[in-house]
Amino acid sequence: MRARIVFLLKNRGAYLPFHHQFLLAQTIKGIVLKGGDTKFATFNIYNFSGLKGQTKPSRKGLHYYSTRVTLVVSSLNKAFIDYLLLHMFQLPQIEVGGLVLQPEKVEMENLDSVAESDKFICISPIVLMEPKIMNESTKEFIDPEQDEFSDFVYDVTLQRMEACKLFNSEDLTKFNEFQVVPDKAYLDKLNNANKKFSRIYPLFDQDVKFEVRGYTFPFVFYAAPEVKNFVFLNGIGALAHKGFGMIDIANQDPNVRTIEYKIPGLEHFTVEPSQDSR
Fold it and tell me: Which of 29, 80, 134, 146 is most buried per CB count within 10 Å?
């Protein structure tokens, strides 16, 4: 299930760091733990985007000026998404960095066209490997046009598919057709303009700060339909549960494939008004 969460922004003009995935990861993890269901406490087969809205950059970061902002959360485990949404929408407001957000509604994406698509874009950066203490290899640059890049993405993606326990060893051996081919014209255009498609990003794991290299570019993706569906729902590459590796179909407006979603069980709860709305 892939859900688009719409929030009312209660303090327009507030800002977030340019890369704020670590703040969203902390917020999502906090909501999951607050819900109290132990089976989701260590669950990590999910993915999420950055916060989308009308923004203006400054030295501080991205200032949000739209009335509403959107967050996409996704997982092949619908029960997890419903659990996250249920406990999120019981909160009168959520603070993410300097933004104060009020959950308003949820839209669900139709995924029928994913398996038939070959061209994708990165909503959040692709990371090739998990970070390790006292190991700088996760910050090294690997040329996306080389086979090594695609091999790294393949290895970590298949490891995650195996970890979710929905595919047996025979299934996994059939998924050897796997190639990420970046849009060469796009990379050349950025290089000629001295712009970057690869950067170092911060993340936190058990309060330890790490840095990893992430890559953002459009690409053609050759893989089995099951693999395409998996990465579309759960992210491609490493650290998807930290907000990396979310992709979307190129040249397609996601708004045209969404319908409003009713969160199961929410009708049994009463959301208390926030302090500034009383």
Answer: 80
β-partners of residue 107 are 4, 260
Question: What burial class does residue 257 get, using C-beta atoms within 10 Å of its C-beta: 0-12 exposed, 13-18 middle, 19+ buried?
Answer: middle
| 247 and 129 within one domain | yes
**Structure-token pair, residue 244:** 């990396």
Show the domain range for 259. Answer: 2-111+255-272
Residues 264 and 226 in one domain: no
CA distance linking residue 246 with residue 216, whole number of Å: 10
Tally of domains within the chain:
2
Whether pLDDT at 225 is above 60 = yes
Global confidence as pTM: 0.90
Q: Which pLDDT tens digit goes with each residue over 201-219?
A: 999 887 888 999 999 999 9
CATH number of the domain encompassing residue 221:
3.30.70.1900
23 and 48 assigned to the same domain:
yes
Is residue 69 exposed (0-12), middle (13-18) or buried (19+ Cβ within 10 Å)? Answer: buried
Does residue 201 lie within any of the structural domains? Answer: yes
Residue 277 resides in a domain: no
The amino acid at 63 = H
Token reading at 85: 């949404």
pLDDT, mean of residues 16-25 = 93
